[in-house]
Amino acid sequence: MAFSRPKKRSYSEDELYEYAVGALARRMRTVAELKRLFRARVEDAESEYGQTLIELVIRRLKDRGYLNDSQYAAYFSSLRRDNQKFGRRRVVTDLKIKGVHGDVIEKAVDAAFEGVSEEQQAREYLRRKRMVKPKDQKATARIFRRLARAGFGTKTIFTILKSWDVDEDTLNSLESEIA
């Protein structure tokens, strides 16, 4: 079943604020995500009035402590690290997609991954995904790509593959794939 787009209409500041509080009650959001929601709902979002209305509501939410990209980034980073066992690069990419500012991302991810061994994190990711030592070149390439998508560096990936006694030819072919 396809979902229809929300109807655009005129909102007062209080109505838009109530809508935003409800959206934030369902899950944490970044400023950019909330602005996207507003633009999809507010009839004249592109006009000066619409933009001012959206900025007023965003300011009000920030003042009340309901909207904070720094807290969001810190919470999101620790969740992705602990629950999904993703690497640093994946967390950074996901936060950029969510519209968090680069400086905020850097601080949050540095704090979340401080003292975390990337190799140990990658091994936990493999264990979580029930991936075992590869039997052939195709399985090795699959594990390599999976770890790369999960945000781990090539140095870490090659360290793990070498510990599994993957032959040099396979490693060389994977290394050429990167370049």
Report on the structure:
The chain is mostly helical and 179 residues long. It has three domains: 51 residues, no CATH class; 44 residues; 61 residues. The chain is built from ten helices and no strands. Helix 1 packs across helix 3.
Shape: elongated
Task: Tell me, rounded to a whole number, the average pLDDT.
Answer: 91
**DSSP strand content:** under 5%
Output the number of helix runs. Answer: 10
Structural class: mainly alpha
Helix content: 55-70%
Q: How many domain units? A: 3
The profile of the biggest β sheet is: none
Detail the poorly predicted runs: none
Rg is 22 Å
Order of helices and strands: HHHHHHHHHH
Number of strands: 0
Question: What is the end-to-end distance?
Answer: 43 Å
Features:
68% helix; 179 residues; mainly alpha; elongated
SSE order and pairing:
Blueprint: H1 13-26, H2 31-41, H3 48-63, H4 69-82, H5 88-97, H6 102-112, H7 118-128, H8 137-149, H9 154-163, H10 168-178
Helix pairs in contact: 1-3, 4-5, 4-6, 5-6, 7-9, 8-9
Please outline what is shown here.
This protein is mainly α. Helices cover 68% and strands 0% of the residues. Helix 4 (69-82) runs antiparallel to helix 5 (88-97).
